[in-house]
Specification:
Elements: E1 4-12, E2 16-19, H1 20-37, H2 39-43, H3 55-62, E3 66-69, H4 95-111, E4 120-124, H5 135-143, E5 148-152, H6 158-172, E6 177-185, E7 203-212, E8 221-230, E9 236-237, E10 260-261, H7 263-284, E11 292-297, H8 302-313, H9 326-329, H10 336-343, E12 353-360, E13 364-372
Parallel strand pairs: 4-5, 4-6, 11-12
Antiparallel strand pairs: 1-7, 1-8, 2-3, 6-7, 8-13, 9-10, 12-13
């Protein structure tokens, strides 16, 4: 059995940024137009009027202040309200593969590895732009990696589930060096016309290099243990997949084909599930909460993370113990906890322990217990 280790991480961040104020201005213009066009039906009680959004509401509800996106022009156009992403030909790199190449290149550079030394690529993300061929196999080819590759989708837990899969293969000896990439174009499946969720998501891609600890060429984190769990729920659902589409007549899709969630139910049901999952993981590994120097949690909602951090540590975590990137990136699905890890791990010292955890639709929760080597 071999000990797996994380030896590199990388983040691709889109150049385009949408602030809360920009988003609110576009949404409120859309809402005003909708209310004017449907004034009679609203007055008759047949259609519900669109309430305005506000930056204060967004920050209070989520802790989000801005988000990075692949295209802001379409999102901020009240007549469009979704990203305008060019349809690529089959002989061009896909948009997800292009994002992954950037993040993987950064992760490999940090690990001191060449792409041809990689023998496993996993594309672990919540939305894939096509069923097949696998995005991971495309990334493998574009990188010049060897071995094999496959896609994985466990919604917001995809990255941690991908890490477990790669770590298990390294433990068994079936692979020596793996890449787990999470290209998340969340803007493509968000309903930007829904006040309750129009602010939630952003776009990004992360990548993690895992290899045998004995092969590490520099600073690394030993993967002491991984733990995954799932339980079916419809409270977070997406029936449409990767990109928002339109019907042949040009009308927008039905609302139920985009990202939907029962926020209050999710808060009530997921938080105890995640807190208990982490506590049991630590107990089974003989690690006390007091040993944890860092919690890199899924970046979905600040209130959720604050609740989980307090449950796990038995007190309110300091910003250093539980770093948030939510305010800058918004919810980036499976990539969120990996962004936090990538940006807030350099200061840990040999022997320091930390835990990466993500959770979301499924329900699903994945945790990775690491120790600085």
């Amino acid at each position: 059995m071999h000990m797996p280790a994380i030896t590199g991480s990388g983040v691709f961040t889109p150049d385009q940024v949408i602030t809360n104020d920009e988003l609110v201005a576009a949404f409120n213009t859309y809402a005003e137009r909708f209310n004017a066009e449907n004034a009679e039906a609203i007055a008759a009680g047949n259609v519900e009027a669109k309430a305005p959004s506000s930056s204060d509401f967004i920050v209070s509800a989520s802790g989000i202040e801005q988000r990075h996106v692949m295209d802001k022009s379409g999102v901020l156009d009240p007549d469009v309200m979704h990203p305008l992403l060019r349809q690529r030909s089959d002989d061009e790199p896909s948009i997800m593969a292009e994002m992954a190449l950037d993040a993987c290149g950064k992760a490999l550079a940090q690990a001191g590895r060449r792409a041809d030394e990689v023998d496993l690529v996993i594309c672990a993300a919540s939305n894939h732009e096509r069923p097949y061929p696998a995005i991971a196999i495309e990334v493998q080819q574009l990188l010049g990696a060897g071995g094999f590759a496959f896609d994985m989708n466990v919604a917001c837990s995809s990255a941690t589930f991908g890490i477990q899969a790669a770590a298990d293969m390294i433990r068994s000896g079936s692979v020596r060096c793996a890449l787990v990439a999470s290209p998340e174009i969340c803007s493509g499946h968000l309903e930007w016309r829904d006040r309750d969720c129009h602010f939630i998501f952003g776009d990004v891609c992360t990548a993690i290099v895992l290899e045998r600890a004995e092969d590490a060429r520099g600073d690394h984190f030993i993967v002491r243990s991984t733990r995954c769990a799932t339980r079916f729920s419809n409270n977070i659902r997406n029936n449409n997949g990767f990109l928002r589409r339109t019907r042949p007549d040009g009308m927008a899709d039905r609302r139920d084909m985009q990202f939907v969630q029962e926020g209050r139910k999710v808060f009530k049901e997921v938080l105890p599930l995640v807190s208990a999952h982490i506590a049991q993981h630590l107990e089974d590994e003989g690690v006390t909460a007091g040993r944890l120097r860092r919690l890199w949690l899924h970046q979905a909602n600040k209130a959720m993370n604050d609740f989980i951090g307090k449950k796990v540590l038995g007190r309110v975590p300091t910003p250093e113990e539980q770093p948030n990137i939510l305010q800058d990136y918004a919810n980036t699905s499976s990539a969120g906890s990996i962004i936090a890890f990538s940006q807030y791990s350099d200061d840990l010292q040999p022997g320091d322990a930390g835990l990466i955890c993500s959770f979301g639709a499924g329900y699903s929760v994945g945790s990775v217990l690491v120790e600085k080597g």
